[in-house]
Amino acid sequence: MVILKREFSFDAAHYLPDYHGKCERLHGHTYKAAIFVEGPPDEEGMVMDFVELKGLVEERILSKLDHSCLNDVIKRPSAEYIALWIWGEMGPHINAGKRRLKYVQVWESPGSSVIIDENDFENFRGMLEVVS
């Protein structure tokens, strides 16, 4: 199997409810995220067309998170919960045949990131509270 990766960034504000420290106040980040897709190359030699993946990221992620207050989307928008939310948005649109969403990585700052896989999503998605 081959793993491809598509990185993207978005600017957003958030605050962490019930957190005691400066992050309990509204502040912003330039987030970076990566989508990892695993599968066999198809007859064109691709696991997934990068153009198709870019379109999905723009439609499913950036249109909702870029230049937003993340608390309007995710009740507790930690990097961990942002990654779970991204998985929930992308997984159903990527998983087809032998192609699977492998990892989601979210950087809150250049030196701080989280990585989740399908097991993490299955184990922790019940903790994710999405704002309607």
Salient structural properties:
single chain, 33% strand, alpha+beta, Tetrahydropterin Synthase, Chain A, 5-stranded mixed beta sheet, 3 helices, 5 strands, 132 residues
Describe this protein's structure:
Its EC number is 4.-.-.-. This is 6-carboxy-5,6,7,8-tetrahydropterin synthase. Zn(2+) binds at residues 14, 27, 29. The active site is at residues 23, 67, 108. Its cofactor is Zn(2+). With 132 residues, this protein is of the alpha+beta class. It has helices at 50-65, 79-94, 118-124, and strands spanning 2-14, 27-39, 68-69, 100-109, 112-117. It has 3 helices and 5 strands; from the N terminus they run E-E-H-E-H-E-E-H. A 5-stranded mixed β-sheet has the order 3-1-2-4-5. Strand 4 (100-109) and strand 5 form a beta hairpin. The protein has one domain: 6-pyruvoyl tetrahydropterin synthase/QueD (Tetrahydropterin Synthase, Chain A). Helices cover 30% and strands 33% of the residues.
